[in-house]
Amino acid sequence: MIIGIDIGSTTTKAVSIESGGASPGLIKKIKTRAVDAVTSAAGAFGKMLVENDIPIQDIEKIMITGAGASKIKNDLFGISTEKVDEIRAIGIGGMFLSGRENIIIANIGTGTAIIDARRESISHLGGSGVGGGTILGLAKKLLPTSEFNGIMELAEKGNLSQVDLLLEDIMETDISFLNKESTASNFGKMLDTAKNEDIALGIVNLVYQVIGVMSVFAAKNKNTGSVVVTGSGSNNPVGKKILSVITELYSVRFEYPVDAEYTTALGAGLFRQFFRP
């Protein structure tokens, strides 16, 4: 068995993978939080073994990736530990979960990375500092809560026209493929009557519109009609609604594989099966 660990800037995710055979795959998955990379990795590994009754002698290898992987200098618990480039890990995990070998991936974490993943090569097309970290940071200053679920509960009840300048505010007709309800400027209106719910929706809308349009440009550049969404931000129901509007405007489909939140950890764990020596 192989353990894949994605040591992120805020959350660490781990998966166990049955190695060997024709079709290796994710067996168990867990998430942890800790203040430093070593504690996160050790905690995720220990939690995986304890909660799933996995004997430590069954672990052949630990594969680590993510922002904190560089802080791990030695083997963990005497088990061979190998670092995997994060972009490669996202690409491998995305291809495995989607069941395809030629995809564009939008990996939404604290920030966002856009990746062109193919069997023969995995490349980083670019990205943005806009992501989940942006939502939490803006909420801390603009809302009474900076807890993610609380922000989403507020956003689900928000009215975007209270904070965003819409095309209907500045013109009487549609423009190009944009309708009158399209955003002309994020937070460009910000009425005094705007409630916390409206501000929460404005924050989430800003982040997912940036991610959505950036993903569309990447997809169209690579002549594909879909984008696979991975990372923690793939499970955001409000964000999914915003991306569905992007689909209507640009005719690029967003896909959300099962277990997409664990894509990077899974890709790290599958690295040796994917790139065989």
Walkthrough of the structure:
The protein has 9 helices and 12 strands. The protein has helices at 37-51, 86-98, 132-142, 148-155, 167-170, 196-221, 237-250, 263-269, 271-274, and strands spanning 2-7, 12-17, 26-32, 61-65, 81-83, 102-108, 112-118, 122-128, 165-166, 183-185, 226-230, 253-255. It is globular and about 70 Å long. The longest helix has 26 residues, at 196-221. Strand 1 (2-7) and strand 2 (12-17) form a beta hairpin. The protein has a 5-stranded mixed β-sheet with strand order 3-2-1-4-5. Helix 2 (86-98) packs across helix 8. The chain has 2 domains: 2-83, ATPase, nucleotide binding domain (Nucleotidyltransferase, domain 5), CATH 3.30.420; 104-259, ATPase, nucleotide binding domain (Nucleotidyltransferase, domain 5, 2-Layer Sandwich), CATH 3.30.420. With 277 residues, it is α/β, with parallel strands linked by helices.
